[in-house]
Design a protein that fits this description.
- This protein has one domain.
- Helices cover 43% and strands 6% of the residues.
- The protein has four helices and four strands.
- It has a four-stranded antiparallel β-sheet with strand order 2-1-4-3.
- Strand 1 and strand 2 form a beta hairpin.
- Helix 3 packs antiparallel against helix 4.
- The protein is globular, with a radius of gyration of 14 Å.
């Protein structure tokens, strides 16, 4: 993700896609954007305006809270291929206790925290968030 010249590394495209697919399946009953339309718009369009990022932060907070109610085994790697699991299978760190803390970036940060930081930067700078 990027906000102006500032990069917020999130990892591979399939990893980010898995986050959004998991939200869609586990929290929206398979209808992307039905409960979290601003986050869905970011994934669909690859960009959010600064005006939308405050709402995205609120949605992200709700997503995190609700994902905590799901075990790591509930992860959805690819909504279009439900039998496909993540490349690491079920070999995850003991510190991952729910889907709320399942998504960890390549540099060891929580994806939700990285996204929140990007949204915050967008609000503060007036620049859009882009998936890059």
């Amino acid at each position: 993700m990027r906000v102006g010249p500032i990069a917020y590394p999130v990892g591979r495209a399939d990893f980010l896609g898995s986050f959004f697919d998991t939200v869609t399946v586990r929290l929206e009953g398979g209808a992307r954007g039905s409960r979290f339309p601003t986050l869905a718009a970011l994934y669909r369009d690859g960009e959010l305006s600064p005006d939308a990022t405050e709402l995205a932060r609120a949605e992200l907070s709700n997503v995190e809270r609700e994902l905590r109610q799901h075990p790591p085994a509930d992860v959805v790697w690819d909504i279009n291929e439900p039998d496909v699991g993540p490349p690491w299978g079920s070999d995850i760190a003991d510190t991952i206790t729910s889907l709320g803390n399942y998504f960890v970036t390549a540099d060891g940060r929580q994806l939700i925290a990285v996204m929140d930081a990007a949204f915050d930067a967008s609000v503060r700078t007036g620049k859009p968030v882009r998936i890059a």
